[in-house]
Design a protein that fits this description.
Elements: H1 2-33, H2 44-50, H3 58-73, E1 79-83, E2 90-94
Antiparallel strand pairs: 1-2
C-alpha cells in the first residue's frame, strides 16, 4: 500500500511539472511575437510605407462610392464604415 501512495505522489508531481513547463513554453513565443522595428524613412521600405494609399486615392474613392450606394439603398442606416485593405485607414460615410 505504501508503494501505491508513492506512485500517486510521483504522478501528481510530474503533472505539475509538465503543466509548468508547458505554460512557460507557450508564453515564450507570445512575448517574442511583439517586436518594435524601426524603419529608416529613406529606406525602400520606409518610402513604400510613406507612399501607401493617400486619403484622395482611387482605392479610397471606390470604397467610398460603394458605401454611399449601400447607404442610399438602405434608408434605415445612418453611417457605414470600412477599413481600406491597403493602408488600414477607416473610410466612413454618413448621411
Amino acid at each position: 500500500m505504501n508503494d501505491f501512495k508513492t506512485r500517486r505522489q510521483l504522478l501528481r508531481g510530474s503533472i505539475g511539472w509538465i503543466g509548468g513547463v508547458a505554460a512557460l513554453a507557450a508564453a515564450r513565443p507570445a512575448g517574442a511575437a511583439m517586436q518594435r522595428v524601426e524603419v529608416r524613412p529613406q529606406s525602400p521600405l520606409g518610402i513604400a510605407i510613406a507612399n501607401r494609399c493617400k486619403v484622395a486615392s482611387p482605392d479610397h474613392d471606390a470604397i467610398r462610392a460603394r458605401l454611399t450606394a449601400l447607404l442610399a439603398a438602405n434608408p434605415s442606416l445612418g453611417t457605414l464604415s470600412e477599413q481600406c485593405p491597403i493602408c488600414g485607414c477607416p473610410i466612413i460615410v454618413s448621411r
